[in-house]
Every structure is written in C-alpha cells, then in structure tokens.
Amino acid sequence: MHGRPRKPTKLEDEEAKAAKSAKLRSLQSQLLHNHHNKIYTNEALEISAKLLEINPEFYTAWNYRKLALQHNLSLSHSDSNTEDDVITSLLNEELRITESALRQNFKSYGAWHHRKWVLAKGHSSVDHEMRLLHKFHKADPRNFNAWNYRRFVAELMKRSEEEELKFTTEMINSNISNYSAWHNRSYKVVGLNYSGFREKMKKMICYDPDGDDAEYEEDDGKGQSLVVKSFVVPCFVYCYHGPHCWNFLMKIFPFNEMCFFLDDFCSALLSDLLRRGVQGFSTKEKVLTEELELVHQAIFTDEDDQSGWFYHLWLLDQTIKLDVPLLVSTWPAHGSDLTTSVDGFLEDCSFSSSIRFYSKSRKFPLVLHFNHPVEGVSPSTVDVNYAFNAKNEIIWTPLSRNNSGTAGAWVTHLNFPDVKVDSSNTYPVEVSLGNSQGIISLNGFHYSQPSRFAFTVRILPHRSQSAGEQSSTVVWKEEYFHPIHESSLVVAFDQTSNNVDNELSKWRTVTINDEIALFRDLLSVTNCKIGKLTLARLLVAHDVLMQQNKASYKMLHSEEVLELYDDLMKMDPSHCEYYKHERSFALMQEVTANKESLLKHCFSYRGSMPSSLASSICLRLNAYSLSQIGCIGQLLWVQMLDLSHNELHSIEVFVSNLVIFERSSFVEGDSQVLSKALKHILVICKAPTVNLSIIMEDGRSVVKGSCLEREDMTECGVNSDCDFIDEELSGSLMVREWCGHLSLLPSGSLNSPLDVTSDVLLPFYGKHLWDVFHEILDSFVFPGVACLATSGQTSIGLEAMQLLCCLNLSHNKICSFTALEPLTLLKSLKVLDISYNEIGAHPIDTTRYLCSSPLSHTGEWNVTEFEGARIELKKYWEAFVLFKGMSLMQLDIMGNVVNDENFKSFLVELIPKLRRLNGEELH
Amino acid sequence: MEDLVRELAVDKHARYIVSVEKRKDDFESVVMEHLRMNGAYWGLTTLDILGKLDMVDPDEVITWVMSCQHESGGFAGNIGHDPHILYTLSAVQVLALFDKLDVLDTDKVSNWYNTFHIMFCLIYKVDVAGLQNEDGSFSGDMWGEIDTRFSYIAINSLSLLHRLDKINVEKAVKYIVSCKNVDGGFGCTPGAESHAGQIFCCIAALAITGSLHHVDKDLLGWWLCERQVKSGGLNGRPEKLPDVCYSWWVLSSLIMIDRVHWIDKKKLIKFILDCQDKENGGISDRPDDAVDVFHTYFGVAGLSLLEFPGLKPIDPAYALPVDVVNRIFFGG
C-alpha cells in the first residue's frame, strides 16, 4: 500500500468499495473452485481474466491460466485439424491479459513472469514487445521489472547489444538522472558473467564453430577470416568457461581491430562487450576515457543527483585497479636479520641491526600478505629453503575466518630443532613463489609474478635461568613510553623502489590528474559533497600511484585529503561516520608511508613485560581519531600495539590494495625469470598456426608459442631463447604491439601432449592457447596495484600481525566480542586490554555475521556443545568463541557492561592460563 | 532517545495488527487474501517485538498455518491457494516464533523426515531436481520464476530447519555472487539493477552461509548509507522517495556488514515515528499515508534494529527476534 493518503473514507466510497469487494471475493472463490476442479472452459477462463485485471497479484490465478493453456494447447495438438491461428489466438489472449494486468500494476512479478513464460513458447515479436516496453519505460523509466524484462526479451529475441547500448544512451540523454540506465550501461560494460551471454557463445561454438564461411571468404584478402577461425573461436570457448578469456581477449586485441572482426564475425553483442571491456589495456584507455566524459555530464549537470555517482566511482576504480593477486609484504621482510632467543634473554644481545624475536618452541612465523585473498598457498606453490627444511613439515594456514579457504594473509611456522648452536651461527632462509601456478585469487586470477625473498635467522644459545613471567604486567601508562631514535627502529621496510614507467602507468597518471583538475574546477564553482568526496579519493589514489614509483614518497596531498574529509563531516553530518572511516584510512596511509613517518609513532616501552615480548618498541596510534585501521602490510613486524582512545568499532582492517611493491629486484639473476622490461610482445596470427613471440628490449625473442590448426595439433611448445622470427612479420599477418613488464612462464609447461577426440577438441585447443597467453599476459601488468579506497574487497584483519603480543584497545567503541574475532588467529597474543568499550551495551550485534558461529554455519561447531553446557555458555557464546582458543595472560575488560562477577568467573574458567584480570592477580 | 520512547504507540500498533487479522471482508483484505501467510508473519513478528505476542492464541495460528500446507509439502499464502516458496518461509518463521517447528514432525506421522518434507517436497517438487536449478539459483515454484529472493528464502528456511545440507550451498552462493553489480549491490537476476530489498536477500543469504567475504563492504556500505535522504528516511534506490520498509532492507544489510553507524540513526527513528497513525495504530510508508501491516512490521523491526528502548532485538539475517534465533541455534 504505497503512496496512498491516510484519510477517513466517505460513506459513498464505503459503499462502492463494499460492492467492489464482494465482486472480487466472488471472482476469487470461483477461480479457486475452477482451479481445484480443473475446469478450463471459456467461461471459467473469463473469470480468471477478470480477476487478474483487478488483482494481478493473485498468483494462483496465473498458475491456473498456465495449466489451462497447457491443457488447451494439448487439445489443439491432438486435433490435427486445428489451424495454427488457434494456437496463436490462445497465446495472444495470454499476452493481452498480462498487458492489462500490468496496466493495473506494472510491478506485478506474477504478470511479468507469465509474459516471459508465454514468450518462451516462441510467441510474439521483438517489435511488439519493444513497443510495450517503450510504454512502460515512458511511464516509469526506473521500473526495474521492465528493465529486467527488457534484458530477457533482448536475449530471447537476439536483439543486438549495439541497439541496447544505444537505448541506454538515449535514456540517459533524455534524462541524465536515470540510475537504472546507468546501471544497465555498467552491466553491458562489464558483461563478464552473464550466463545468457555465455549460453549464446556456447551455442555458437558448439553448433557452428567456424561461422559462416561464405560470408567471410570475402575478407580473406586481409587474412581476417582465418584469424577469426583459428584464434578467436577458441578464445570464445573460454568466454564460456570464465572471465579469464575475456581478459585475455581484451589484452590481445587493440580496441578498433577487435571491433572490426567481431562485428564481422558474430553479433554486435560481442563487439560491444569487448569494446566496452574494461580488463584490457588499450581497450581500457579508450573506453574509460569515453565513459568518464559521459558520466561527467551527469555529475556536472546536477551534482546532488546520485545517478552518476556510483558509475563514476566504478570507472575510476577500473582506471587504477588490477585484479591480479600480488604479494604485498612478508614477514620477515627481504634482507632482514632475525635474532631469536628461546629463553627470552635478548636485552643484552649485541646485534643491534637485527630484529629480535622470542620463540620458546623454536618455531617462528613466516607470513605472506597478498593484495587479494588467494587460495592454493602450499609447498608446491611456495618454496621455502632453509637448513632444517623437511618438505612435509611446512603447512600453510590461511589467516581467515570464513569457509572459503582463501585469505589475504597466510602463515606457516618454521621449525628450528634444538641443536647446540653458538651465537654466531646464522641460517639463511629463502622463499620463492610464483614459479608455478596454483595461487589463485577469489575472482579466478592466477598469481604469476615470480618473487623471491631471503633473510637470515640467528638463534641465541640457551641459558639456564628462566625468565620470570609471573611478575610481568604490562602497564599502558604514558610515563613508560619514550621516544626513540631512528637507529633503534629496526624495521625492514619491505619497500623497494622501482622505476616503472610504461604506457599504462602514464595513462593512469594522466587520467587521474585530469580528473583531479576537473573536480577542482567543479569545486571552484560549487561547494558540493560529491565533488569533495571524489577529489579526496582521487588525491589518495594519486599519492598511492606516486608512491609505487618512489619508496620515499611522502603523501603529498594528505593534508588536503584530511581537510576535505573534515569539510565533508561538517557539510553532511548524517554520513559523518563514513567520512571518518575514509579519513582514518588516509591517516593510516600517512603513518605507514615511510620509515620516517612511522618513527613518530614508535616508542620504547620501559615497563615490565612478558618475556615473550622481545622488542620493547611499541607502535602507538592512540588518540588518533581512528575509526578504522589499515595498511597492516606495513606493520607485520609489530609486537606491541596501542590503539587506545580511538573510535574503533571493529578491528577489521581496510584492505589496502593500494600499496604494492615492485619485486623485480628479487628476481635478478634468476635464470628462469627475466626481470628486464619488455619492449614488445608480438602476437602473430597466421593460419594455420598462431605464434606468440615476446620481444625483449635487446631484440631477443624469448618465447615462441605455436599452435597448429586442430586437425594436426600435434606440435606445441615454448622454446626459451629462440630467435626473433622476422620472416613472419611479412605477408598477411596481424601484428599487435604491446608494451609492458613481463615475467615468463617456465618452459615446458605447455608441452603436455594433446590427445584429443573431436568432442573435446575445441576446449583443448582453446586451453592450449589460453595457457600460453594467459600466463604471459597476466604477468604483463603494471607491477603496482591500486584501487580507490572505497572498494576494499575483502577485509584482512589484525590477524596478519602474527608477532603481536600486547594489544591495547581500551577506550574505543567496540560493541561486542564478535568484533574481536580476528584476535583468535593471533597465537602469540598474551596481553589484551579492551577496557572501556561498549561490550554488552547493545542489543543489536553488528558483527554477529562477520564471526564464525552456528548462525552462519562457519567454524568448527557442534550445537550440542551448547545444548549440554551450562546456561552461561549460551549466554556468553560470543565470549566463548573469542577466548576459548587464546592463551592470554593478562586481560582487562572493566568499563564494559558485560563485566560482572558472573562473567569474570566464566572467563577465569575459560582461559586457564590467565594470570591477571582487570589488574588483579589470579590464583 | 528517552524523549522518543513515549512517541511509539505500542498498544495501538498491537491492537491495529489484531484488528487487521480479524477483518476479512473489506476490499484491502480481499485483495491481500492470497498473501495472508506473509501477513501472519509480519503481524505476529511485530507483536513479538512489541512484547505482545500473548494477544493471539498460538493454537489457532498453528492450526491455520498447517491447513495452508499443500500435499507437496510447501505452504500456500492461504487455504486453497497454490504453494509457493514465499509463503513457505513465512510459515516456517511463524512456527519458529511459537517454538513449534516440531509440529512439522508430529503432525505428519511419517517421522522426522517431515521436518524437511515441508521444504523439500517443494524443493524436490515434481522431478526430484528440486527448486534449485543447475546454476545454483532457485525457482519460486514449479513455474520457474527465478529470483535471488527465492535463494534467500530457501537458505533461511532450510537453515532454521537445520537442513541446509539438502541443497548445494556452494552453487547457491555462486549464483548470488553472480548477481552482484558494480555499485556493490545485488539484483534479482544477473544484470538486474541493485535494489535495497534484493540486497537484503542476498546479504542475508550470504550471511547465513558464512559467505560475506564476497561482499565489497565499503562500497556497498557507501551505496546503502546514501539511501538516507534529507528527511531521515531511507529509499531503496538512488533518486527515489523514502519509504519505511527500507528501514528494514537497508538497515539489516548495513548491520550485517557492520556499517550501520554510517547513517544518522536519530533522524531515521524520527522518520519512522512520523509515519505512525497515532490515532488508530499502524505505520505507513511515508508520513500521512494509509497504514498497513507490511509497513507496520518494517517500521517496528527497523526501530528494533535501531535499538529503540523497550523493543525485543531482531536478528538481521533470519528476520526473527534474536531470542527465537538463539533458541534454534544455541538451544534452550
């Protein structure tokens, strides 16, 4: 009952309504009667038609009509004398009824579905449906049922995507404030996962893999048709299999050529999707530039109109984001020296340039932190070489709390057995990954950037005295913290500079700079919130792009960014917390940008501490107005962290795709991998073979892949260091030029013999090509990744900080124990202060579904565990989830509603190792 | 907040709901006849949140609910109508409210299989293939309409019955993820525009299956918090009018992704309270419009999500009071 005014009804209305109501009631009961008794006479059908015109939501009547139609159609089929027009008139009647029902209620799901159901029987015409849709779009340009129906019709009637895109343009031009049209545009621009589309491709390939020969023979002079056949077709097979092939296709072909033969080859649908494709390279430049221009019109026409906002953000995101997983940082970092003690005596150790670390069990964590959640980190994808390596011992664990088996951070523990060592003994450890496939991101991209890092571990000899753990209590008082000198901050910054300067990065920088200028212009005219927000995002993105080029880059715009967010908070107080969140990220970025800025927040702790805390350096971000933490990749070394007096709701971390480090310096000298920048990649297509050559700066060709036509697809392979094949550059060849970085696949990975039957021939054919090109081209990326701050895909929490031993979260806004769940993955955490938060004060738990529990079917749960347990367990299940696996020694929870005697005794029982609770010694 | 507490006409809303229940002959009731099962869920859940569930006779309700069960196992919107997944969830939720999910066992003698018989005769309908399709999506009934609403419904009801293992959860999740749009939201089928109601369905389905890692929380959070318009109310899509029902769809989604603090809660509370009919009870879509049970439920549930004093907290994913959900999953 939407939009109907509340008013007392008049008497005559009352009477009219009563009559209407009686009529409807009678129709409804007659309909049900006919339905139950399967009466499908004309009179009975008429009743259902009348009913649906008045009340299209009466779903059983639609079901009844479907049964009736099936019944009547089967009658007319059995009667061979029946003319086709009988069937036609039956179907027309159904269309007529849905039309009048939709006129009554254009949002009626039942009516729309009924129409689809009839249409699927092969009835009606595109023109007719389009005319009808035109009426509905005119009446309500935002009617999403109509838009959905439009996609259905376009698909069913094979209407070209060209026309559909044109339609969205028209809708936008007629009224720029049409979010629905923008949405449909983005959908066409992405077009990666549309099942209907894939179906279409599948059909095309299965039934007519070669296309229509006659039609394309004419082009043969240009060599196009064969190219299409031998090259594009197998790629299309892969469109059906997943997004990879799209990326692949779009990377291979420059925009205009792509359109050229795709227009020829199949429906314009493809060309449209591809022309608008965003994963590609030169495609991307052109498409994004065009689309940005269009959406600027929307934003600049009325800056408060939201129709273009999200589309614009998405375009910007596409401008600077890459989907490829990359290694962001590691612990230990490349080149670091670690000194490990097994007994906690590190204070007097003389290796000042060394990172000190305590491990009673002679194990220590090795952490890999990726920009995207990935799966497949294992001994077969990551090589770890050190003196005590036993292959089977290395077990990688995803630091994640969901069922997916993927995580942004992975940890393993290296074991140093108890051998008699003297202090001068150091052990080198070398880790390399990316040399074989297997690490895959959630969205299906392979990790393919080979990298290697190395560090040394020194194990101090065991001494007889044991450290007195009992007496140590961490006190987070100001007087215990002292500023430190740069020399005492031994943090291996995992940040190596690079001098990437390729076309893509240039284009990105130019685009971002143009956008910045444009939004500055906008703001000089009008003081609007979207202008400020976008400018802030752009400046952050700009700084990040710059930072990738220079390790010591200072966040040039951070003050301006912070100011912009401050303005926004005042201007739009309703969304204050959102801006605070974004602002926190900018703050965190500033802090972690370089060693110098980090140093300002590092303090030496001079109080008592547990022996497991080997370093006295505390990172203090207390009272820093943070509502969110971020940039954890830079903080993997932290053992003591003070986040008190902030505004944290949770310890979920803003995913920072933003900071990525060039790792090419690690791979120098590796014979498998060429770290030098490529000059060109040439993709050479010539029937019946497709060759791929990659040309290095020095003119050497390093890879050549060739695939023969499928009849004799016996020869394929990649030869390293083969020579430049210039004879293939002549004649009717297509040559595509690319610039960029490259790391190469190991030779031999393509040598698997192909023994194929005709049924599986095409996919194999495609796969083969795909393997060659995908691996090469996926690594053919700007080795930096950035995205706008708003699009953190999956959060990686504090769990990546595997060394964290003492954590202060007091005086924040944490509302429940479920918000602290990432802590369960911090096995070294001993001291936790969560006093003066809001735990227990809120009936609604906003992290209830972000934590593992039976509610979300995550974690190792057994409901009977609760059923059999005492009442407290049910009452305190969140605390149970959090603390049961932790080995805390010191915990502070005072100043929270939940903190009562009952709960405290529950905790003492739950955490047997606990020595101090709320400052009081336990016995 | 305290000054607002008195503004909520608890007793009037409860009386309004009971009166609608009794009213069967006016035009609105006749038009809504086919979805009485939804109405029962909306009304009864509202009563429970208001602490007034004792105003109805549980036995009467249960008897009526069970008389809407079709021989195939699914529930209809009312007696004599066809079964549909939409009404099956409401039936399961109503039974859960009264802690009577066990009648599904005992009423039909044929042992505990019946617990899922109700869903699964529907799910496995005619040809055992069930309402779940090859691509992981769900149909609403045997006529094949596909919508992520139905994915949510199937996942929610099966989870309440502890029978989530009866479907291919992985595929179901994959399908929902394929409906994700570039604005971070979700539509009813792949490619369909984001809509707050649909976003709720998808987010809740992902929440129940522990799959919220597929959600771009910050991007979606921004889209959702921008649903708040100047009056304080929430709309369901950009550039649309605010409507009380989005207090549920948008709020519950924001809660599940822990971004609810990004909106101005006080202004929203005020908007909902302004939509009350303070004379006759009930809540409408916008101030001074005609009230109905649907908006009364979403208004009250929205207030519950906003931690309005005196209301029972409601679970954002299962759309049932937290104590009911906890009883099902943590025993008691």
Provide the helix percentage of chain B: 40-55%
Which oligomeric state applies?
heterodimer
Globally, the shape of chain A reads elongated
User: If helices are DSSP runs of H or I spanning 4 or more residues, what is the number of helices of chain A?
Assistant: 27
Low-confidence stretches of chain B: 106-118, 120-129
CATH architecture of chain B: Alpha/alpha barrel
Radius of gyration of chain B: 19 Å
Number of β-strand runs of chain A? 26
How big a fraction of the residues of chain A is strand?
5-15%
Q: What is the count of helical runs of chain B? A: 16
The neighbouring-strand order within the major sheet of chain A is 11-12-13-15-22-23-24-25-26
Distance linking N and C termini of chain A? 64 Å
The figure for the number of domains of chain B is: 1
Give a structural overview.
- Chain B: Belongs to the protein prenyltransferase subunit beta family.
- Chain B: One of its GO terms (molecular function) is Rab geranylgeranyltransferase activity.
- Chain B: Keywords: Metal-binding, Prenyltransferase, Repeat, Transferase, Zinc.
- Chain B: Heterotrimer composed of the alpha subunit RGTA, the beta subunit RGTB and REP; within this trimer, RGTA and RGTB form the catalytic component, while REP mediates peptide substrate binding.
- The complex is a heterodimer of chains A (923) and B (332).
- Chain A is elongated and about 100 Å long.
- Helix content of chain A is 40%, strand content 13%.
- In chain A, a hairpin with an 8-residue loop joins strand 19 and strand 20.
- Chain A is built from 27 helices and 26 strands.
- With 332 residues, chain B is mostly helical.
- Chain B has one domain: Alpha/alpha barrel (Glycosyltransferase), CATH 1.50.10.20.
- Chain B has helices at 2-5, 10-22, 27-31, 36-49, 58-67, 85-97, 103-106, 113-123, 148-160, 169-178, 196-208, 217-225, 245-256, 265-274, 293-305, 322-330; strands spanning 283-284, 291-292.
- Chain B has a two-stranded antiparallel ribbon.
- The longest helix of chain B is centred in the N-terminal third of the chain and has 14 residues, at 36-49.
- Classes of the chains: A alpha/beta (923), B mainly alpha (332).
- The interface between A and B is large, with 99 and 100 residues.
